[in-house]
């Protein structure tokens, strides 16, 4: 005679499927939020590094006969006094050949020498900022960021 036990331990298949569905639902809400937080962190890092590079370029200007560096890759890391010790990598890889930020310099008859350092941003939709000689400022559009010794206007 077989004896049946009614006190079995374990989970049924239905219970396991329900738990897996709840976990999948939670993950579908959490993962996009984590990606957004990662992007915000990259933007904050880029903004901080752009300000550091701006300070380094101004320091280079003051210590090198009022001339801006030809590039921000080797010129700033080898400058005296040292402001930055290594090339700062742009999280959005604006300058693909150097994996760093974009940089442009020029001279305007009214404003004088100017520079801009920029990043493409998370959407990669910010190109070289354009110099507006009429108003003496840089303009740009997109999700990137731009710092300069001149005023910067986002379109």
Element layout with pairings:
Layout: H1 13-63, H2 74-77, E1 102-108, E2 112-119, E3 130-132, E4 137-140, E5 145-148, E6 152-154
Parallel strand pairs: 4-6
Antiparallel strand pairs: 1-2, 2-5, 3-4
* Biggest sheet: strand arrangement: 1-2-5
Radius of gyration: 26 Å
How would you sum up the major sheet? 3 strands, antiparallel
**CA-to-CA gap between the ends?**
86 Å
Q: Which descriptor suits the 3D outline?
A: elongated
Annotation field: number of helices: 2
What would your notes on this structure say?
By secondary structure, the chain is of the alpha+beta class. The protein has one domain (16-154). It contains two helices and six strands. It has helices at 13-63, 74-77; strands at 102-108, 112-119, 130-132, 137-140, 145-148, 152-154. The strands form two sheets. Strands 1-2-5 form a three-stranded antiparallel sheet, covered by helices on one side. A hairpin with a 3-residue loop joins β1 (102-108) and β2 (112-119). It is elongated, with a radius of gyration of 26 Å. The termini are far apart. 25% of the residues are buried. The model has no long low-confidence stretch (mean pLDDT 90).
